[in-house]
Amino acid sequence: MRRKFSIIIVVGVLSICVCKAQNPTLSVNWNETVMVSKSTPTLQVVGNPMLRRKAAMHDNSFNALRNLNADYVRYVPWFPYPKLAVAELKQPDGKKTYWDFSLIDPMTIDFLEATNGHSIIMNFSTIPQWMFKTDKPVNYPDDANEVSWGYGGGTQLRDSTLKELTDYYVRLISWYTKGGFIDELGKYHQSGYHYNIPYWEILNEPDLEHNMSPQTYTKIYDAMVGAIRTVLPQAKFVGLALAYEKPEWFEYFLNPSNHKPGIPIDMISYHCYANANTNQKFDAYEYTVFDKAENFVNTVSYIENIRKRLSPHTQTDINELGTFVSDEMRKQSIAPAYWNLSASVYAYFFIELTRAGIEVIGESQLVGFPTQFPDVSMVNYENNKPNARFWVLKLIKDNIKAGSTLVKSTVDENNGGDIVAQGFTDQSSQKVLILNKRNKAISIKLPIEFKGAKVNTIDETSGDAAAIESELSGETVEMKPFAVKLIVLSK
């Protein structure tokens, strides 16, 4: 009898534990303010052949961008496609200049029109390679759609005064904002464009693409800002755009004493891609990418301490946030579940970086495709529809604004960190953003006042479509693998 009784107790205890593990409980104290959000969710648009007119992904991609209505969208024509990114591919020879916007304009104008009325961050990051000291000229393909990984880079500019570099950017910017420019030989080139560019970012990943030191980059930043202000006197400037979060870069660049007098440090930027390890199978991705995302958030806190100490008025734009699959996975069709995993990672980044006080939280990137980082695309390159990564961004952007109040939100300890949630309030409603970090369904017990609330869900069921709307009818809600939900309660 004793033996039987003991077994019954053990089984009962195990049953209780299993039940609790499967049903974590969400608690939200709407009256306990944590902070007020300063964060704006957005994305970057990287120029590539699929954004050219008549390309398969062009129409749906720009329609999605237009319908998103986002602020602080970053636009980066990129070095692997020189003819789509560099307006003067050949050096002036004393008799002729070689300015040519014919292939650059269509995509750039489509971007400017799709984001009309919103703040944008422009970054023509690729420096013409003839401006660098090289053993021989750097060639580029005749076909604008042909990738050229060898074009970018360059480590030492041939003009140490930097005037050649700054003149190039002044003319390029004048093309889009002043109706045209006078070239090196005194000839006027008319564009007729008078677009507003409120932010200009100086280069992209100089620590990686150009192997620069922070001292060299800061010198270039100061020279370019000083020159660009002559044509964009009201513009603000974004510096760094780092691939790696090296403390010495932030310590040097954010120190005002290392800049010329009067040069502003309006905003800094840097990047994070939570990538899978080489040859890793998808079943293990959830742990790798979220661990890397968590480590990055810890790094952000460290960088924020440097910024607050040296340049507290400088804002931060983390403008490339994404996930990568392994090289092996890129060679095959990427599993649909991956897009939900990546979307969930962005929701995680948004919650944690909002808590860290980051002003701009940018997802990377609008369009990718096989051979061109397909794993960061926000548009499905197989059917040209916006995918889960886009729809999570839109869900957050449409519902959680800078100025919203973050309130104390917890998921009990039985959760094991698999579910992340954050409550927000504004003048009209109370909202909770919830994400599932795991490749399994998890049910969450909700507060009783949530009954009847509106729920927006992006998961394996929604696929390449907008969030599914429903109404809570019970005390629990199921989070399918890598699901993201927004629960909305009217005040």
Labels describing this entry:
single chain, 491 residues, alpha/beta, Immunoglobulin-like, TIM Barrel, 2 domains, 8-stranded parallel β-barrel, 7-stranded antiparallel sheet, 11 helices, 23% strand, disordered N terminus
What does this structure look like?
By secondary structure, the protein is an alpha/beta fold. The chain has two domains: 21-35 and 406-490, Golgi alpha-mannosidase II (Immunoglobulin-like, Sandwich), CATH 2.60.40; 38-399, TIM Barrel (Alpha-Beta Barrel). It is built from eleven helices and 19 strands. It has helices spanning 2-22, 58-68, 105-114, 163-177, 206-209, 214-228, 247-253, 285-310, 327-330, 336-355, 388-399, and strands spanning 26-36, 40-47, 73-77, 120-122, 180-182, 188-190, 199-201, 236-242, 267-275, 315-324, 360-364, 405-411, 419-425, 429-436, 442-445, 454-458, 468-471, 476-479, 484-490. The strands form four sheets. It has an eight-stranded parallel beta barrel with strand order 2-3-4-7-8-9-10-11, surrounded by six helices. The longest helix is centred in the middle third of the chain and has 26 residues, at 285-310. It is globular. The chain starts with a helix and ends with a strand. Residues 1-20 have low confidence and may be disordered.
